[in-house]
Design brief:
The complex is a heterodimer of chains A (281) and B (364). In chain A, helix 3 packs across helix 7 and helix 11 runs antiparallel to helix 12. Chain A is flat, with a radius of gyration of 24 Å. Chain A is mainly α. Chain A has 13 helices and no strands. Chain B is an alpha/beta fold. Chain B contains 15 helices and 9 strands. In chain B, strands 1, 2, 3, 4, 5, 6, 7, 8 and 9 form a 9-stranded mixed sheet that branches. Chain B starts with 6 loop residues before the first helix and ends with a helix. Classes of the chains: A mainly alpha (281), B alpha/beta (364). The interface between A and B is medium-sized, with 31 and 33 residues.
């Protein structure tokens, strides 16, 4: 029998090669270009990056983005946890229906969903008219055109992204641990706090990363539900690239965002097992 | 709507909606635009065959088949070749094309923010006025890097249920007199100008814009302001009673007025041009300017006013406008007299800075 020309490892490499080449060509190369432009336009140097420390408007946009994203992530996680917990306990049949309810909004365009929220939340919207007709309030509540409206819209969008990893994590929890805790005299509350909650934490962390990183890229929902008064980083970048054609500033912010996300992931990798988190082990 | 929408983008959307709402049959819409092309037959059908293909790019939707029938077919009949592309010529896309030396567009639907940002960077061809007829356009809107294609206005509209008399622009800033929210576009163009007009700056002395003064004026009503990104949004905010008064494009104001309750005025409005621009190194060369020249015919521009509310850029068209359309025509002589005119020169020097500052102002 002839020995294969390539060793065993070589064959595996060849199988991976097409995907790897595609990543390098269509992902890595454009990223490097973005980085390159950010230090070359309009003049070579780190002038664009200095703006991070000198430009009050960029700092404000970054702070707004951070504030909204942290808030969205926190609320989404709490709501998502409750939904996943209920789902994990429910019967197969109920679970299927609940899953449909969670996935359905994912298939509706983000624009449509934003405008649907406008219909619900505006002055003469369903909620305000309903409350006023019931005599509960005299003036419409300011539910929209502010950060409250933005947060409502974003949490709604993000919920499935929190529920899915949380649910996977919870399904993997061995029920016998809970039974054992109960058997050893723990109350329901104690067995949840001291056994279930710690075991579900990897899912919580995975879901937070996913939701937080996705939130950073939001621009449609804040632009519509915020009444145009809130500017987040994704939209700021888009204005720099498409409208005022200051690619140096736009790519600098994009690079900063990527570095920030990688740093975040690296930090988390020290705390949790990333391979397990994303199902690779 | 993932970003601040341009006027031309909104036009494509209106046409789409009108067609879908059944107020314009496809045949009517195409015929209306078709007449524009037929009337604009390029001279010299004899040049024939050898003429290169001209790619005209707009913002898509129903405007693509409309333009195809309007411009492409007559152009083919006269021996030229034309393609309509609806992929949306934003500044960023034009820059990408020119820098990659891979220009596929010849004529793009743009505006003063286009010539202002792209022209100085050397990304546009100069308009060849030996081919494009300068006498067929208002001198104020025939620029080095762009020439008027149609006219539109930024105007004030109000809810007649909450504002009884015809308000002035000063009333827009008077919350005591007419309580309620106000609406601005989420971009500086037109907004700074109208703020200054409201503050008493004469229309002919607007430029150079006194930005300090404009932002100070806007600051007086800041907590009462909402901002729209797209034309459709401006229409729904007024229609749904979310705002009492608003500054928006005349085309959207027209649609609101037709439904009743909302009224608007050209008084103290700002007249702005939609501009044809030619990306640097465009594939069809001079043929692009022959295409632009063919679209200057007044008859077609009047048809465009009837179907889309676009004001004719050719002053000679005013006489051909039917009486019932005069009131809504932004470039009607009476309406021109009531408005200030935008200065592309100012936008070339300060447009980007003004947009930055405006976005800072609204998000602070």
């Amino acid at each position: 029998m002839r020995r294969p020309v390539f060793g065993e490892a070589g064959i595996y490499w060849m199988l991976v090669m097409p995907a790897l080449l595609m990543l390098v060509g269509f992902y890595l190369y454009p990223l490097v270009r973005v980085l390159w432009i950010s230090v070359m336009e309009p003049t070579p140097g780190l002038g664009n990056y200095a703006l991070l420390f000198t430009s009050a408007s960029i700092q404000r946009v970054l702070m707004t983005t951070l504030r909204i994203c942290v808030m969205t992530t926190a609320i989404t996680l709490v709501l998502g946890y409750v939904v996943s917990y209920v789902m994990a306990q429910a019967s197969e049949r109920t679970q299927r229906w609940m899953m449909l309810g969670i996935l359905l909004p994912l298939w509706i365009s983000v624009l449509v969903r934003a405008f649907a929220w406008v219909t619900l939340l505006r002055r003469q919207g369903v909620i305000n008219t309903g409350l006023m007709n019931m005599g509960l309030i005299d003036d419409p509540l300011p539910l929209i055109w502010n950060e409250l409206g933005i947060t409502i819209g974003m949490v709604h969008y993000m919920l499935p992204f929190a529920v899915l990893p949380l649910l996977t994590g919870m399904r993997g929890i061995d029920r016998r641990c809970l039974a054992a805790a109960r058997g050893l005299g723990a109350s329901r509350m104690q067995s949840f706090v001291r056994v279930f909650l710690p075991l579900s934490l990897p899912g919580v962390i995975g879901a937070s990363i996913l939701v937080f990183i996705f939130s950073l890229g939001f621009l449609v929902t804040p632009a519509i539900l915020g009444g145009g008064r809130t500017l987040m980083i994704a939209e700021y970048i888009s204005v720099q690239i498409l409208d005022v054609v200051q690619w140096g500033v736009g790519t600098m912010l994009a690079t900063t965002l990527i570095v920030f996300i990688f740093a975040l992931l690296a930090m988390l990798a020290r705390v949790v097992d990333m391979r397990r988190l994303f199902g690779a082990s | 709507m993932d970003r601040i929408q341009s006027f031309a983008e909104d036009q494509a959307e209106i046409l789409n909606e009108e067609y879908r709402a059944g107020r314009l049959s496809r045949r009517q819409m195409l015929a209306g635009l078709g007449a524009l092309g037929l009337a604009a037959m390029a001279p010299g059908a004899a040049r024939a065959q050898a003429r290169p293909e001209v790619v005209v790019v707009n913002f898509g939707g129903e405007a693509v088949p409309a333009f195809r029938e309007a411009f492409q077919q007559p152009y083919v009949a006269s021996g030229g070749r034309m393609v309509i592309d609806g992929s949306g010529p934003s500044n960023g896309k034009i820059k990408t094309m020119v820098q990659a030396r891979n220009v596929t567009w010849d004529v793009a639907d743009s505006g003063v923010a286009g010539t202002g940002e792209l022209g100085p960077l050397g990304l546009l061809e100069e308009i060849d006025y030996s081919i494009v007829d300068k006498s067929k356009v208002d001198e104020a809107f025939a620029y080095k890097y762009g020439v008027a294609n149609y006219m539109f206005s930024t105007v004030m509209a109000w809810d007649t249920k909450k504002v009884s008399a015809t308000p002035t622009l000063a009333d827009f800033f008077d919350i005591q007199k007419y309580p309620g929210r106000r609406m601005l576009r989420r971009s500086n163009q037109g907004m700074l100008e109208l703020a200054l007009l409201a503050d008493g700056v004469p229309a002919d002395q607007l430029y150079p814009l006194d930005m300090e003064r404009a932002f100070k004026k806007l600051g007086t009503i800041k907590q009462h302001l909402l901002f729209w990104n797209s034309g459709a949004e401006s229409q729904s905010l007024l229609r749904d009673g979310e705002v009492v008064m608003g500054l928006l494009w005349n085309t959207r104001a027209n649609l609101l007025k037709r439904d009743g309750r909302i009224d608007y005025t050209f008084q103290q409005g700002l007249l702005q041009p939609g501009l044809w621009v030619v990306p640097k190194g465009n594939p069809a060369g001079k043929e692009a300017f022959r295409a632009i020249a063919s679209m200057q015919a007044p008859e077609g521009q009047v048809k465009l006013l009837a179907s889309m509310g676009n004001g004719p850029a050719n002053p000679a068209a005013a006489a051909l406008v039917p009486a019932e359309l005069k009131a809504g025509n932004p470039s009607d002589p009476a309406n021109i007299a009531a408005q200030a005119k935008i200065s592309a020169d100012w936008y070339e020097k300060h447009g980007a800075a003004a947009l930055q500052r405006f976005l800072d102002f609204i998000s602070a």
